[in-house]
Amino acid sequence: MSILSVVLPAYNEEQMVGKTCRVLHEVLSGAGISYELVLVNDGSKDNTWNEILKAGEKDPNILGVHFSRNFGKEAAVFAGLAQASGDAVAVMDCDLQHPAETLIEMYQKWKEGYEVIEGVKKSRGEESFLHKESAGFFYGIMSKATKVDMQNASDFKMMDRKVVNSILSLTERNMFFRATSSWVGYKTTYVEFEVHEREAGESKWSTWSLIKYAFTNIVAFTTAPLQFVTVGGGICFGCSLIMIIYSLIQYFRGQAIEGYTTTILLLLLIGSAIMLSLGVIGYYLAKIYEEVKHRPRYIVSQIVRGNKDVTGSVRHDV
């Protein structure tokens, strides 16, 4: 019988872990689907890990993975994929904003032969205008990089075992799961879902963390910012040519140019462009440095299946 593994990254989700496990058990068992829940505690500062242990005592199908510290959501997703043993593997948020019932529809699509079932948001929910526009800009860049429409993409998806193995075979340290699952290809279909409101706890994403997350993933997946540097340099060069031609024309006409303000503005413009360009290039160099060190994406300190400690069977990140 086929087994469905559901990967659930968790950071400070003590209020939701128990309910999420109960809801998934009811939905999947009710549909006759054999399942495994892989909950990854991403260095939570609250009692999330204790709640995972309590849930494991009630349900032997729960696999708890405990990080030595906080490594971030992307690392938690890949740790969950590495530990999942199912024939199909789904990834969803631990706060139930991704509806559990949609897993049944995804599972049926997988049984029909689809290898990647993408969860697509019907709408972005109640978000500020600035947040929606920023998200649209970010996913526009990622869509061009992956050649796949990611405007309403999410981490909520289901993949065949061969797709998971392909993703895990990629060796880079800095990976963007949402884009990588599209980049690997395979037979893909889409399932729409409505984003549910969070029932308890608070969102872990501030505006600054979202900006940082977006920029980090853009750099990790595409060289577009470097192209912007090239374009910016071309624009500055074009402006310089225009100013040179204008200055020469005025010179040969015998018309003196005071030019002090213009000179200062040009110096500030070019200096700013250079510093910005160096910053972008420096960020890429930092990512190269991280890749060269070849440190693991995460460190697992403990792993528990049901109520049994099986830390010795950890599939280590390589």
From TrEMBL:
The keyword NAD does not apply. This is Glycosyltransferase 2-like domain-containing protein. Residues 5-166 form the Glycosyltransferase 2-like domain. The keyword Membrane applies. Its main location: membrane. Keywords: Glycosyltransferase, Membrane, Transferase, Transmembrane, Transmembrane helix. GO terms for cellular component: plasma membrane. It is a multi-pass membrane protein. GO terms for molecular function: glycosyltransferase activity. It comes from Blautia obeum. Pfam families: Glycos_transf_2. It is found in: Membrane. InterPro entries: Glyco_trans_2-like, Glycosyltransferase_2, Nucleotide-diphossugar_trans. CDD domains: DPM1_like_bac. The chain crosses the membrane at residues 228-252, 264-286.
